[in-house]
Amino acid sequence: MNAEPDVPAYRAPTLTDVAKLAGVSVATASKAINGRDEVKAATRERVLKAAELLSFAPNALAQGLLRGRTGTVGLLTSDLEGRFSIPILMGAEDASGAGQVSVFLCDARGDAIREVYHVRALLSRRVDGLIVVGSRTDPRPPLAGTIPVPVVYVYAPSANPDDISITVDNVGGGRLAVEHLLACGRRNIAHITGESSYKAARDRADGAVAALADVGLSMLGGKPYYGSWHETWGRAAAHIVVEQHPEVDAVFCGSDQIARGVLETLRDLGRDVPGAISVIGFDNWEAVAAHSRPRLTSIDMNLERLGAAASQHLFAAIDGGVPPTSEQFPGRVVMRDSTAPNR
Amino acid sequence: MNAEPDVPAYRAPTLTDVAKLAGVSVATASKAINGRDEVKAATRERVLKAAELLSFAPNALAQGLLRGRTGTVGLLTSDLEGRFSIPILMGAEDASGAGQVSVFLCDARGDAIREVYHVRALLSRRVDGLIVVGSRTDPRPPLAGTIPVPVVYVYAPSANPDDISITVDNVGGGRLAVEHLLACGRRNIAHITGESSYKAARDRADGAVAALADVGLSMLGGKPYYGSWHETWGRAAAHIVVEQHPEVDAVFCGSDQIARGVLETLRDLGRDVPGAISVIGFDNWEAVAAHSRPRLTSIDMNLERLGAAASQHLFAAIDGGVPPTSEQFPGRVVMRDSTAPNR
DNA sequence: CTGAAAGCGCTTACAG
DNA sequence: CTGAAAGCGCTTACAG
């Protein structure tokens, strides 16, 4: 049908091709290209020129076979779709990309079978290490079977404390949020958050409670308003809070989406934010936090940094220097317009 | 510091190990494992058992070297962060994962230099093909240099029409949106959309204009309200539209975020949606469309399907059967509560 | 400074 | 049915 072959029958040039063109042995060509100094300058010139001419790129498979190191890493995520995997993945990719490593991406879709399958494939490809990123902060079962390469768990820690897990400090995050609210002069603070089955929700609440206790306060209503992570719950819960505790002067929300809902209800109710009530979200999800009215102050958990750290720990483990350990990252408050009046 | 070595000095078992344990030659072991039928059943049994025992996984590097095919694909994205890459990537991963292929993920961060760098690395790793996903629908320059493997461009088409590009039909999407509004009985339709420098914005507008022309109508205001993709513009533009054209009974928004802004202003203005005014968004971004008040009807461009198609086309090109061609995918309207009264 | 040889882990004709 | 040999593309001692 088509005269032009769309798949070029083009064979990738090999070192042998380069050597032939340069009139040297493969051994010499190899040395020249790899910058070994036991090669005459003129020879190196010729080899390099030949390589250039053929657009020679050394076959990484052959190199990997020889070296016993492939310069590849497997990134196993359980939900690509989720907002949390991506920044982590970007951080990991960046930290790797700088060097010479390529990353295999696998999405197990939260399915254990698929995970096993992917791990097997990655091991077959002889990755130098594995990064496992989960979408919830609840501990997850460690990878099944004996894994002959280092593994680093990110966001979702491994249930095995001997494994290396890079996590986010949600307790600290909750504390940060409440401390910011206190700094804004607020004292009657409610906490509206997601499903209590999530460790993330419970941890953030614990941090909030602790920060309040530090100054002799407790949460409005005595405990968090657990519900769902969505806007809808934020809207509903805000109504409840205002009704039950008209003195409320701040709301710490477990997610930015909840905060959006809260903001909307407070507008409907004619309560001024941040004049009368401060609202702080969690996640610092740009798309929702930066364009609300008023723009939302939120806690950013530095997920990208988490990913970068995971890569660094993994490489440390691969290189076998100082044994890397688990690490927990603090968040930071990103202040916008919903927490303090701008005077 | 640590008695337990965290990096097992464990050497991955080879076919030789398996053969030795089973008491056969590597050749025979290979045949047994690969299901060749020139092996006695009992022998095969022994080999398989040995492989099992050692958790033997064939070295894919060696196999790739031999076969001249690695079963890997490079996925080159220009912005992981963007909401568009992910579903495409998921589709591609799924379509691949089913078989035996692993995908290398590279994010060029919109940087041409980085892109060249990644392509070089991928080629060095002897990927069987490349998928290039862009974040805008504007044509992009084709990959630089001679690429010895098939390449499929997704979302952002290659500027070279001879290349294979899998794209979204934005003109059709715009048409779909307006046709839905017309079906809801609306006639005074305004179009608020993103920056006119985006081909996506212009295409959607063109489709909308065409659908209106088909029934002898034109856009309210005579042309689209171009601005930005954000909520903020949606809020501002809605004010303008209502002021200039109080008869407005529908708004087609170029993005779900714009639509959120429009919804908010209409609420402030006391205009009932969908009673008095229908609002339709674009992208069907679950997080924003499904939780607004009212829930937002939107155009879904089936990005995941796009990714899957890209993979399929790529494999077709790799296998060298029927030459794959460019393809454009239609969208679909996902109806929620913002376009028609629920009676 | 250069090149012949061995070998990384596998598969595939080819003998036996 | 089984195994010795060659070879995929490279690198690295080891001679010369």
Automatic annotation (TrEMBL), chains A, B:
InterPro entries associated with the record: HTH_LacI (IPR000843), LacI/GalR-like_sensor (IPR046335), Lambda_DNA-bd_dom_sf (IPR010982), Peripla_BP_I (IPR028082)
Domain named HTH lacI-type: residues: 13-67
Gene3D superfamilies attached to this UniProt entry: 3.40.50.2300, lambda repressor-like DNA-binding domains
Keyword field: DNA-binding, Transcription, Transcription regulation
Keyword DNA-binding: yes
Lineage: superkingdom: Bacteria
Keyword Nucleus carried by entry: no
Gene Ontology molecular function terms on file: DNA-binding transcription factor activity; transcription cis-regulatory region binding
SUPFAM superfamilies referenced in this protein's UniProt entry, alphabetically: lambda repressor-like DNA-binding domains, Periplasmic binding protein-like I
Protein's name according to its UniProt entry: LacI family transcriptional regulator
Native source organism of the sequence: Phytohabitans rumicis
Gene for this chain: lacI_14
